[in-house]
DNA sequence: TTCTCACATAAGTAAACGGTTATATAATAT
DNA sequence: ATATTATATAACCGTTTACTTATGTGAGAA
């Protein structure tokens, strides 16, 4: 019972389009915040706050390198979350849908 | 992109503990509203409203039989929702966790 | 008919949510 | 040292959420 409410809490992270997009992108590779700001159409603080929620529940981890902070999927993403992410479009699809050219890495 | 926001909208239905419990119960058999009211610990209108949301998004269907309305999982539950429900506790586990004796059917 | 039971709908409310702008911090570049 | 860039945090705000109580509706029982 506890368990089912915990699951609901984590699933809440997937219940917002912006966050589900972020997770789908991260499924393929790491992204730094400025890339996500460029891709998603909300403000930088908006992106930061979504990332904070995702991190606080252990779905993503951050890696600070110089000026940038790179986010990637945590290895601890529970199976019921992973199973959903298998059904979301991949980053290539998302990026072309948004008319963003597919960058390979780094903001520089 | 459209697609990802649609998925997020349906996942929102799983992001509440009460609704996730309802769906997990329905995975095993149909339940009438009064059974759900007895099991879950919220008011009857509260249960009705959750069921309305679940129905409006096509996750459950209703079957009126006499005085009662029986709800069951829709056959149209999309795969990414089904895959989550494979990880939730079954109705037996939920009922014993809540100290409700396992009824086999009907309110009568 | 009248009462009761099962359910739905309406209206109200406190809290959470998802965004914004403004500001702080920390690293790099000049 | 100063400016610029990347990110985080704070404060605010309108909307949505998940409940509640009160009331409506429709079926079966008396």
UniProtKB/TrEMBL annotation, chains A, B:
HTH arsR-type domain ranges (all copies): 1-92
Alphabetized UniProt keyword annotations: DNA-binding, Transcription, Transcription regulation
Annotated InterPro entries: ArsR-like_HTH (IPR011991), HTH_ArsR_DNA-bd_dom (IPR001845), HTH_MetalResp_TranReg (IPR051081), WH-like_DNA-bd_sf (IPR036388), WH_DNA-bd_sf (IPR036390)
PROSITE patterns per the UniProt record, alphabetical: HTH_ARSR_2
Superkingdom field: Bacteria
NCBIfam families reported for this sequence: HTH_metalloreg
Protein name (database record): ArsR family transcriptional regulator
